[in-house]
Amino acid sequence: MEDIAALSSEVAATRLWAQLQQNHSEYLKYQQAVDYYTGSALRQAEIMIRTANLTYKNGEISYIEWGTLINSAVTLQSEYLDAVKELNLRKIELEYLLSSNQN
User: Fold this and answer.
1) Sign of the C-alpha dihedral, residues 63, 67, 68, 70?
2) CB-facing half-sphere around the CA of 81: CA atoms within 13 A
């Protein structure tokens, strides 16, 4: 009976370790994504919006071209928010797994 309990405990610890490693890897991936968006992509989106609005106002581009530029900028902003959400979820999961490991 003790052998079964020990084996079960070892299996649980191995699973927990694997989950920790996977979540940490995903956390790092989303951290890099957030860094990319805050480092350059969000500024590019702002520039795209300002440029689209100005060139449309001056009659240099059509409404369709304006819409395409705005859509691209909003897509970048939306992708950033998705990356932040995923990063936060991974952080919560890591904190949960680490607190479970200490009990």
Assistant:
1) positive
2) 6
Measured distance CA(56)–CA(39) in Å, rounded: 27
**Residue 101: what pLDDT?**
58
Any idea of the CA torsion for 89, 92, 93, 98, to the nearest 10 degrees?
160
The residue type at 5: A
Q: Whole-model pTM above 0.90?
A: no
Q: Distance between CA atoms of 6 and 12, rounded to whole angstroms?
A: 10
Model pLDDT for residues 43-67, shown as the tens digit of each residue? 999 999 999 999 999 999 999 999 9
- Domain locations along the chain: 2-102
